[in-house]
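Please fill in the sequence for the structure shown.

STRUCTURE ENCODING:
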């Protein structure tokens, strides 16, 4: 039993020493234009989701979801978020492959997180990703407007869809990649 415990201790010491050597001698990559390995992305994503679940308050959006607020959220996204997360004309961001890890292209692949999760990520930022904490630059109400817009990308009302098309030259796409259809949307809300 004593040798077994000694073996565990030596193994832990060797792992820590290898980690120290890798860090101290610059053996770990630091470039921001590399593609993260799948295992690293999976671990980071799981860690972020667990941290959000633990720390983010599960609160409802206090800003009414109106056409006006969704359009304001769309404009705030275009001014502040599109450079990293993709433009509303479905072009990937200019920085999509210049950051490590690459920022999610939210317009091309909409988020499926609850509003409280999106709000917390926008408000407080995400450490080690380049995602800033917007609570120092935007009012809380504006963060909620962006949150409302992002959480409804697949189901925007016709007025917001029209504003999107008028401003960006394309209609928003549904989850299946097709354009939104006003008549189908209107039938579901009558």
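FILLED IN BY: designer on duty
SEQUENCE:
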């Amino acid at each position: 039993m004593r040798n077994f415990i000694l073996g565990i201790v030596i193994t832990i010491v060797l792992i820590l020493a290898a980690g120290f050597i890798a860090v101290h001698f610059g053996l770990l990559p630091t470039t921001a234009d590399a593609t993260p390995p799948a295992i690293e992305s999976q671990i980071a994503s799981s860690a972020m989701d667990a941290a959000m679940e633990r720390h983010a308050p599960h609160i409802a959006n206090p800003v009414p979801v109106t056409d006006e607020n969704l359009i304001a959220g769309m404009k705030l996204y275009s001014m502040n978020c599109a450079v990293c997360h993709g433009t509303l004309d479905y072009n990937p961001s200019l920085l999509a492959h210049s950051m490590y890890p690459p920022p999610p292209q939210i317009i091309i692949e909409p988020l499926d997180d609850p509003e409280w999760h999106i709000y917390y990520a926008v408000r407080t930022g995400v450490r080690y990703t380049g995602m800033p904490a917007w609570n120092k630059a935007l009012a809380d109400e504006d963060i909620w407007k962006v949150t409302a817009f992002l959480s409804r990308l697949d189901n925007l009302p016709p007025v917001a869809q029209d504003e999107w098309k008028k401003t960006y030259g394309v209609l928003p796409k549904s989850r299946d990649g097709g354009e939104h259809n006003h008549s189908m949307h209107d039938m579901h809300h009558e």
